Amino acid sequence: MTDFIEPVLDTPSAVPGSKKQLRADLILIFVTLIWGSTFTVVKGALADTTPFFFMAIRFLLAALIFVAIFYRKIFPLDFFSFRAGVAVGICLFLGFALQTYGLAYTSASRSAFLTSLLVLWVPFISLFVEKERPSASQWGAIGVAIAGMWFLNRPETGQLGRGDWLTIGCAFFLPYK
């Protein structure tokens, strides 16, 4: 006889075999595939243009489409929302600028991995903003991510280059978006 205790699942959507859970998992896989493939697409686009021109075109198109679809929800805009939007926009710009410029100097796979390190900053941001200390599992995840970074950049495979450092910089700004 074992002392195994089954976990209690309060919501039907949390049941592993449910249709909602399967749908959520498939959407997450799809979004991850799209996110990962953008690094290769952007790397290819940078062969024909500069990082900042590419970003200008990319975000101008996104802004025009966004305003066309959500114009009535955007305006009127109060001062607090405008100020918050500017702060988030600055962080988003710095994150994407560093990532795109860094991608011009490093591989798409390294850029994707180093960008994903943005999750390392979330517990520290939470510590300063919410006064909430990182949990043991968060510390463990931070350790695993740092180990992954070491394996990616250990001395016998090369050092962190210019593009890698720029991408690490992007990982600092993107969690604020």
- What is the terminal-to-terminal distance? 51 Å
Mean pLDDT: 84
Number of strands: 0
Quaternary form: single chain
Classification by helices and strands: mainly alpha
Summarize the amount of helix as a percent range: over 70%
Provide the low-confidence segments as ranges. Answer: none
Walkthrough of the structure:
The mean pLDDT is 84. The N and C termini lie far apart (51 Å). This protein has one domain (17-176). Helices cover 70% and strands 0% of the residues. The chain has helices at 19-45, 51-74, 79-103, 108-116, 121-129, 136-153, 162-173. The radius of gyration is 20 Å and the shape is globular. The protein contains 7 helices and no strands. By secondary structure, the protein is an all-alpha fold.
